Amino acid sequence: MSVPLRSGATVVPALAAGIVIAAVVGWIQSGQAVDRRALPFVALALVVIAAGELVRLDLGDRLLAPVSTATAVGLVLAPLGRDGGGLPLAQAVLAVALGLAAGGAVLALTGRPAPLSDLAARFIGVGFVAALGRSQMFGPDLIQWWQRPDVPRWLGALALIGAATVGVGVEIALWTASRSRTWRISWLALVRADLERSGAVGAIMTNVGALMAFAYPAIGVWALPLYLVPIATAVIALRRAQRIRDIQHQLITALSRLSDETGHTNPGHAQRVARLSVALGEELGLGPLDLLAVRDAALVHDVGQVTLAEPIPDGATLGAAPAEQAQVVLDTVRIIEAAGLPEPMVEAVRGSIVQFRQLREQGQTIPVTGRIVKVANAYDDLTRGRRSARAAALERIHLGLGYEYDPAVVDALARVTENA
C-alpha cells in the first residue's frame, strides 16, 4: 500500500510525444542511415531497454527501471557513429523511444502498471543525456572530445558521468512535477525526497551507463553485458529489500486489526486515525517518507492495548490515566520493535505519548510524526468518526493547546476537518 497519489499529468507525456515527432522529422530530412557496424550494439540495447522495464523497482509511489535507464544512457553516449561520435541525435532519441515503448507495451499486455508519465520522464531524461553528449566541447562534441589523445581518460569518464547525472536529475524533476496530487508539499521538497529514496540507484544508473559507453571503443558490443552485471546484482538485492518491505506492510496491516478483533478499540479506529494522520501530514508539508511513517505508526499505535488485563472503556486512550496511556505506548513499541518494523515508524509511536510542553519547555525532541498521531488519535477518540462531534472535539483539544498538543498540528486539524 502506498500513499495515494493521483497522476493525471499530461504535460510530460505530451512533451515526450513532441520530441519523438521532431526526431522523426529530423531523421527523414537528414536521410542518414544507421552505421551497420553499430547495429549489433543498438539491437542488443533495444532488447535490454525493453526487458529492463519488466524488472523495475517499486518505491511505493514511484517506479524505477535501473537496467533500462542505464542501457539507454550507454546507447546515447556510446561512440557508434562513423566519425567517432555518437549516433545522430534523432536516431539515438528514436532508438530509446522504441525500446521504452516496447517495454511499456509488454507491461500493458501482461496487466502490469505502465504509467505513461514514468516512461515519458525517463525518455526525456535520456534525451537530455543524448543532447549533452552532442554538445560542442572546444570544437568536437562531448562524445568525440573525450576520445582525443590529449584528454585524460579519467576526465573523459567524469564528463560522461556528469552528462548522465544531469539526465537522471531531469527525469526525477519531471516525474515529480508531473504528479497531480493532493499533497501540499513544495516541488523542491518532493524532489529532495525523491533523491533521498532513489539517489543510490540513480548513482548506479549514471555510472554504469557512462562506463558502458566509455568501454565501447575497446570491447565493442561486449561493453553492454559486462557492465550490466553490477547493476543487475544491485537490482536483485533491492528487489529482495522491496519484498521485505512488502512483508512488513502485511504485518502492519495485521497488527492494525488486532486491537479491533480483540474488542480493545472502537471498530475502524486505527484506519480512521491513519487517514487523518496522513491528511494532517500533507497539510503540514511532510515528505513521502514521513507520510508513510506517520500512516504506519497510526495504524499500529494502539496495538499495545491487547496486553492490558482490563480493557480501556471503548478503547479510548484519551480518557485513560496517564500511566495507563504510557503503558499502552510502551507495549506497542515493544511489539513493533520485536517485529523489526522501521525505526521512523517506531519513533513516531514513541513520540505520540509525549506532551508538547516537553519540547517547548525542556527542548525534548519529539518527531512531528508523533505529534500528528497524538492529535489524530485524540480527535478520533472524541468523535469516533462522527462528523457531528467535530466542534466539541476541537474545543476539548484546544484546552490542551501548547501543553498537550502541538498548536501547528491542531490548526491543521481544524482546516483538514472543516470540509471533511
TrEMBL record:
Residues 262-391 form the HD/PDEase domain. Keywords: Membrane, Transmembrane, Transmembrane helix. InterPro entries: Cyclic_di-GMP/3'3'-cGAMP_PDE, HD/PDEase_dom, HD_domain. This is Metal-dependent phosphohydrolase. The chain crosses the membrane at residues 38-56, 63-81, 87-109, 116-134, 154-177, 222-238. It comes from the Bacteria.
